[in-house]
Amino acid sequence: MRRDDVFIVHKKFITLIAAGCFLVGSGFSAHAQSPSFSVEPASKQANQVGYYQYRVGPGRTYKASFLLENGSTKSTTVTVQKLNALTSSNGGRIAYEPETKQPYSKLIDMNRAASQYIFGPANIKLQGKERKVVTYTFETPKNIKNGLIVGALGFSSPLDRTTSKLKTKVKNGELTELLINQPQRVIGIEGIYKNQPKENVLINQPTVRTTPSGPLVLPMLKNVSPIIVKHVSFNYKVLDAHGTLIFKGQSTDMEMAPSSEVYYSIPWRAKTFAPGQYRLLMQGTIDGKKFSKAFNFVVPDQTVRNYQSETGERPVAAPGIHWWVWLIGAFALGGLIVFLIFFIFIKRRKKEEEEKDSAESSLKN
Question: Does 355 reside within a domain?
Fold first, then answer.
């Protein structure tokens, strides 16, 4: 698997030279797309599938060897990261990260963090045109006896780094960004225990968050089981407080990492982002088994105000009027109507009395 780390720093009116945004690829295979640097499993069996897979037991040690090749005449230092398996918040394949937690995704059992069980060099020096085999060890913990431990090693070399400039027009001029693209080759390491429990995925209450690209509805999916759960997908509908459909869509077919949870990102597809009560309907399958869920959720007034203030791009409805405001308004209108009726009645009664007095006065004369 090739992973591209794109580094961006935002500062107006000057060229940028630093970074912080990650774009993660998918899959286990790790073949170079340029002749400068390549890495692959040194084992013939692992090389055929593109990653290391072991039948493991508690407290055992397994070796994983990798063939690195420098296709350039320049020397280089390869950086190696130990990675953990997380569920991607955008669906699709499992994501591999050096951390155990991302903004919308995390491990719920730290015993399943593979990075703590992989041992070997963090930096590997290669001379020009050099080929080298480097061996790492995968040491399983004594307290884990079922399911999977899934992780990976990520290899990157400055020889593959590229830069490009991106110019964007802003209110007071032009913003120039220097994008630093650092590919990373990722090779998986998977430990499979004999005892494999059944999948157990829970779907919980959604939350709402705003991002520069738009608001998100985030239902929480939790894989309680220590195994990879495949083919998780669902259709969704979002209704307003009156039961009117405001938008719908379909998730990607996704894999969930062992013992992980994720807030799946559903983009807000309505024309307006308004505060109020909403309902999320979800229907789908988990590894072929059907499920159906319904949740009520709230978009607070302040969330809408903050989003409008931060972006000013998406049309935003005015803050919602709460039920008690409508009730007060109804009472006020009712009181006004009663007052007008009473006023008209008094005025008509007074006029009738004046006409009666005038008629009696005429008769006397």
Answer: no
